[in-house]
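Worked example 2:
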Amino acid sequence: MPNLIKKENNYKKTFSRYEFKYILSKSLSDRIENEVKNFMKHDGFIHKELDNRYFVRSLYFDNKFFSNFYEKVDGMKIRKKYRLRTYNESSYPKIPIFLEAKGRYQERSYKNRTIINYKDLDLFLMPGSNLILLEKYSNNQVIKDFVFDCIKKKLTPSVLVDYKRRPYVNKFGLYFRLTFDSNITCSNTKDLFLNPSVSNWLECKSGYTILEVKFDRSIPVWFHRIIQSYNLKRISVSKFVLGITGCSLATETSD
């Protein structure tokens, strides 16, 4: 099997940070990335065989009213969604799978993640397994919140989104991270791992790259210069929203 597995040692993680996003053409993305390399380095999760990128797969949850989708589209300042995240296209027992609560509180984004047992994956995909999850993960607050919200909002798996990510981290100084995400595709499915013979993938933002800027306190001066030099405009873009609209499950207007 390709060397696509990175061991995850921490059972739980919590992130809180600012996130800015930009959509770039391929040529503009290449130019900016060439400048970024002067100040940043790849993080430790890249794979040479993927052109210094890594693969990301997310299965997002929502309900039949697409409440989480419209909270995002409407720009709610306090919101939260859930996803299962993994880093391989094929089912394999040693591949880590995470349950993540990704949300926003006022101006900051946050993510709470916890690794789940590979053998328990089906319990997260099937309605009616909430009590079993509470028993199996009785001391896990992320999973407790997930179960509560699944019952309250009737959440089920809604859309699968894949992409390739090339990540950079600051060589020196405060936390500052850039990710260049491309080859975004989506599928209308309730499974994390699809049968390879099934080919129902749709492209999202074909030919474009989503640049995500993540920082704790401030953006370095050199990156401010890049923003000004290329006249970059922040936008609200979400791979979750791209997946839902790309699969024609909901539209960005609720009428």
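The two ends are 48 Å apart (CA to CA). Confidence is low (pLDDT under 50) at residues 1-10.
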